[in-house]
Design goal:
The chain is an alpha/beta fold and 262 residues long. It contains ten helices and ten strands. The chain has helices at residues 7-10, 14-24, 46-59, 81-101, 119-139, 151-161, 174-178, 182-191, 219-228, 245-261, and strands spanning 2-6, 28-32, 62-68, 105-110, 142-147, 166-171, 195-200, 202-203, 209-210, 234-237.
């Protein structure tokens, strides 16, 4: 297994985040893509792609994935067809830029105002993913779906999309407030060959993000599941922090390593 963290948790400035990540012992960084003003995001432009590649080369850090949280705010289940069309266009562009960086996964998020809640929502997601999957396949990118629905719901969406470019990005912290059995879902998703990547955070049943070990995640059970399925990908920290970003990141990396490696 490899250990990563969302870059912005370490520092808003990418250069500082890359340097700190290497100093703390992380293997890679996940780059966020969150803004509604998406043309200002670092991953949108060729210059931004070159910057990320340069920082990765200079620090020896990998960049396994992009967290496209932008789709939580204007997403694929929006009732406005123009918004949905824009989302498809954004994702198609993002596939190209992420591939140029050398990423493997794009986290396609379905939270907040754009959760998958109805059968109609599933239909809309399938329609959008069918349009984006061929480019993802050609560029070697996995569209890793993450949201509030069950593993079975994602299986249905992926089966209907009929593309090997789709997978599931599983978050063991979100499983707590959603009332899911995280270790069991990890096993089910892995058995289907659809586990693209894993987010690591701890949460309470009241949906509060807390430091690792202080919430409702059963860490020994999560570690057992990851070892049992022989997961060899990235565990990406999406953890809460305080004023001292370095200290929190260092503490959380040590915590998850101790759970997995003993």
């Amino acid at each position: 297994m490899k250990y990563g963290i969302i870059a912005s948790i370490l520092d808003p400035e990418l250069e500082t985040a890359f340097k700190m990540g290497r100093e703390l012992g992380f293997d890679g960084l996940e780059v966020p893509f969150n803004g509604l003003d998406y043309e200002q995001e670092v991953l949108w432009t060729r210059e931004g792609v070159q910057q990320i590649r340069g920082l990765a080369e200079a620090t020896g850090m990998e960049v396994p994935s992009c967290c496209a949280g932008r789709f939580n705010r204007l997403g694929f289940v929006n009732p406005d067809p123009e918004v949905r069309e824009e989302c498809v266009e954004i994702l198609l562009h993002l596939i190209d830029t992420c591939a140029e960086v050398g990423m493997q996964n794009i986290l396609v998020a379905f939270f907040g105002d754009h959760e998958i809640e109805t059968e109609e929502h599933k239909d809309l997601v399938v329609e959008a993913m069918r349009r984006c999957a061929p480019k993802a396949e050609s560029r070697g990118i996995t569209l890793a779906l993450e949201g509030t629905v069950t593993a079975e719901d994602f299986f249905e969406i992926i089966d209907r999309t009929e593309s090997e470019a789709l997978g599931v990005y599983y978050d063991v912290g979100n499983a707590v407030w959603l009332g899911y059995d995280g270790p069991a879902e990890l096993r089910k998703i892995s058995d289907k060959g659809l586990l693209a990547q894993v987010h690591i955070k701890d949460m309470t049943a009241e949906k509060q993000n807390v430091p690792l070990g202080e919430g409702g995640v059963n860490w020994p059970a999560v570690a057992d599941a990851l070892r049992e399925i022989e997961y060899g990908g990235y565990l990406v920290l999406e953890t809460t922090g305080g004023d001292d970003r370095r200290a929190f990141a260092q503490r959380h990396l040590a915590f998850i390593k101790s759970c997995i490696e003993g």
